[in-house]
Structure formats: C-alpha cells, structure tokens
Amino acid sequence: MSDYVRRAQLIAPSGVGAITVIKGGTSVICAGIDHWFERSDSVDPKEGVDASEFEVDEPRLRKLLGVEKLYTPPDYRRYQAGSENRNVGLKIHFLRFPRWHVCNDCGELVEVSMAARGTQYCAGRCRQERGRARRIFQVRFAAMCEGGHLQDFPWREWVHRDVSPTCHEKLRMTGGAGASLAAITVECACGRKRNLSETMDAETGEGGQTETALTRKLDASGALYLCTGQRPWLGAEAAEGCKRHLQGTLLNASNLYFASVASAIYLPPMAGATAPVELVDFLSSPVQASAITTLRSFDALNVLTLRKKWGKELARYSDEQISAALSSGDSREQAEAEDTDDPVMFRREEFEILSDPQDREQLRVKVVPVSQYTESLSGQPFSRFFSSVSLIDRLRETRALYGFTRVKPENGLSLQQQKAQLRRRQLPPSEEWLPAYTVYGEGIFLILNEAFLQEWERKGGAAHRRANRLGKAYEALADRGWGGQAQLSARSLLVHTLAHLLINQLTFECGYSSASLKERLYVSSDESARMAGLLIYTAAGDADGTMGGLVRMGKPGRLEAVIRRALEGADWCSADPVCMEMGEAGGQGPDSCNLAACHACGLVPETACEQFNRFLDRGVVVGVPSQRDIGFFRGA
Hints:
The chain is of the alpha+beta class. Among the domains are: about 140-250, no CATH class; about 265-335, no CATH class. Strands 4, 17, 18, 19, 20, 21, 22 and 23 form an 8-stranded mixed sheet that branches. Strand 14 (about 200-205) and strand 15 (about 210) form a beta hairpin.
C-alpha cells in the first residue's frame, strides 16, 4: 500500500517505522526512506526529480548527526500540461501492518500481504454459510523488542506453546464478556487454545533486559521464543539478526514508538563590513541556501551564476558585496563544523547568540535589561536571580529524525545503529541524508545570575546531596544508553525544574497548551563554558511562525508575576506531603529519577521535555519544609 502525507507528519510522532491509521481504518506502517525521491509513474525513477528543492540548510545539525544532507518529505504533485512538472509523482510509501486480520463474524484469523490494497474480505466459514463475504479487520496486537524491531504477534507459537510449531491449521479468535485480555481466546483447528492474559506481562531479567511471557520456556526443551530482527517498515524480507526478548503490545501503546529527534536553532551568519545584512539573510534563507549548496557541490558557485539565478533580487548589490556575503556564510559554516561534535559547545553557541540582540530574517532577539523588571521575587530584586532576559520574536528550528526506539525511550543503540533503521540499503558517507523539517516560532530566554548561582552552589550542600540521591538512577540510565543528560548536578536540577514550573504557569497566562510549549536547556559547570539558561518556546510549521503571545508574557511587568506565581505554586503540591516525602525517600516518577516532582506540580507532556520528565526536584527551587534555605529562590 502506498500513500503520501504532509511533510510535518513524518517527524514525531508519525515517522519512519511508526504505525498510523489511514482512511478506511487500515493500519499501515511508514516505510523507509530508500525511495523518497523516486517516481513511481515513470520507467526511470529519477526522471524529472530534483531533490535539492526539498533540502534544508542547517550545517550545525548536519555535522552533529554526521550526514551530508537534510531533506523535508516531498509533497505529492500531479502532472499538469504546460507546467514545469518538476518532482511530479513523488510518494511516501506505506505498508499494511499487521498482516494478520480477523473476521468479526466467524473469528477466523487470516494473514494478508503487506502490499495488499483496499478492503479485505473473509473467505472462510461466514462466506460458505451466508453466501456473502464479511470484511476482515487487522488485529490490534503486535510484538516488539528493545532493539527497535517489530513483528506480527506469533499466534501459532503462542497457541501451541511451541517455538517451532508444525501445525498449520486455521486459527480462530473469540472474545468473551470480560474487558481483560483473558477474555480473548485464540483456538487452533487442531484443538489447542490459549487466552491472551499474559501477552503483555513484562519484568526486568538478567542484564537489564525485559523478559516477557513470549520469551519464556514454551516447550519441554526449554527453548525461548526470541526476536528474529524483523523490520516490516523496510519490507517483509528485511530481517536482521537479533536475540532480544520479545514483548507483546497493542497498536496504540505509547511505548510502541519513540522518535529520536535532534534539533537546532538556526543561527544566521554574521554580516561583514562590506556585506549588507539583508543580502546575507537573503542568501542564507532556506531556498537560496539549498541552491547555493547544490551549486557548490558542482563547483559552479560564483557571482555570475547567482546573478543569472536571482538577477532581480541581486541587481542592487555589487559583485564585491555578493562575494563578501558568500564568504561570511562559508566562514560561519566552517566555524560551526569545528565544535558541533561536542553537545555542550553545540548549545554554547546558541546560548551566546540568544544572549545578544539580533534583527535578522530568521532570528529576531530583543534583550531586555534586567533593571526594567522592577517587581521583586521572594523579597529580592529580580536581578538577584536573573542576569539576562531575551524576548525572541522569531526563531527558526530544524528538527531531524535520525531513528527511533521501542519499549523504552533509551535502549543503548548508537547513532549509526539508529540511522541504519531508516533505510534498507545503506548509502556511502558522502551521500547519507536524513529526513527533517523546519518550524518557526517565538520564545523567552532566561539566564540565571551566574554569581549568585555559584554562591548558592558553594553553600548548598543539601542541594548537592539531593542531586547525588538521583545518582544511582542516573547511572542505571547511562548503562542503558541514556545520552540526553550531559551532567547531573544541583545546577541542572534547578534549571530543568524551573523550566517545567514556568511552562505549567505559562499555559494559564499566554493561551498556549502545555503540549505546545517546549524547553531547551543550556547547562554546564565547565569553567570554560559555564551556562545556566533556559529557553521556553513554541514553534509551528507555518512559515509565519506564531502569534506573539509568549513573548508578550516576557515583558517587564508581566514576567515577574509569571515567575512569582510559578514559585508560589511550587511551594505546595496538591499531592503533598506525599510528593515531597517521596522525594525524600529516594525518588519517584520514570525510573525513580525525580525527587519532589509529580504530575500535579512539576511534570509536563513528554513532547515538551528534553529529558522525558526525568531529573526534576522542587526542593532545589523553593526548598523543602524542613530546609527552606536550600532552594535557589528561598535561600537569598
């Protein structure tokens, strides 16, 4: 089955390897990116295809992910007489999954090809008895493993309790009166039957792997039914070696697909003395930057070529100005390529740019002096806690999908292993690319007062002990491949928790839902690159960005009230004293990686959090009942 979707739908939550439901109720899985820029209506799949039209210019993100190109998913276009007809007939491919279907009338289980199109009908007992076919529907069960593999639920193996069953009789699924899985029974024509009561059971076994009923001993020989490495999004024959434990899942389970998305705030190149700012912005805009990248790859980039392509737009600029504008872009890209391998330096560059006023097409930043924020916080001047406030009227963020995980957000797979999940045939490094898309939005950027923060850290022994309390949970995550948290410290807990408290408060102030807001954390204790900042922003796929409500709440006279009310709300959670005591007892929440933070006070939608709602503690922000002075905003 083939179909196409809008560009933004391909990146989380519906990306490569993700299951979605299309018109008619058919469940399909998004295929790999092998055939994205190929025509299905031509003998030559590359005829009339120009992928550069869909290229995204973001050198920092390309360097971070180790790819040469980033492309947005192509939109579908029909042939039109008399037009250019470039990139006509490009499709995003989908495959039918699961393959097993069930008839709601007679209960027969039927396996259908992944390439089957349209409605499928039962050819079993109901047609023979009633003389008409009944529509069959896909089962709502599948099986997955922590390596990202996915397969149809092993119905025959489950019913016969055998890793290699020899019986191939027809299977039937029947449902009882109960609402639990135990009420659903699968029966073979040979007489064997079994209900689904244990299919979702899971527990942590040796080595930290998830052991389930699917992998436990199924017969007298003690054999285990382990994952065979199936990748249906890449085709029926795309299996690879895997011996992980399998886990049963429902198709709508939240842990069936976690998109691995990397993002970068676009930092425009700096204009030189001879290069006008508007010229640099024009040449660095997405469409022009993609064309320039293509010309450079063919060694055809020069002033004459640019004048032929954009003669009207460049008419008022001299050759020297155009050359200087190109040079400024080249020097910026070279500087970015030198340090974007380091995640701290990757964020550091954004930290510095967002701290300074900017008035560019892709980035407009107004830095408000903290002296203009006159309302006090916790009885102290605003400047006691914050050293800088930047109101970002416009920003551009590029998000790239580089893989996905199943069962858990982190599974120990490397960047290369996750990128390999997206395609069946691997490309040479010089041609490797990833799907991406660009969004525009607005935000508030806050920097904590570094001098007061270091003073708080020096005397904050209790705050450090609270951070160390999460150390064991953090180490367990690191052993499983967690890479989202560069360091765990009282500083990181403070910045992260403050971001969550402000997001939850801003949802009542600016009209955006909590799922529309996102955080971007800038934290480092390294003396050469100290950071303690947070960006709360919202972004949408529309090129015009958002409406400005978030920036309005960051203006003097309003931001102080937002922060004050957020801190007042953090003083007492509706789940206290349990929430605070759970934190004192050793941890709560996902993987016990939170202290005083729960859904009633400090958690936000997972799409808004960089750390999947981990590493949060109200105690380091406002203190605890027995020690108010350990809180950053209460210890002044």
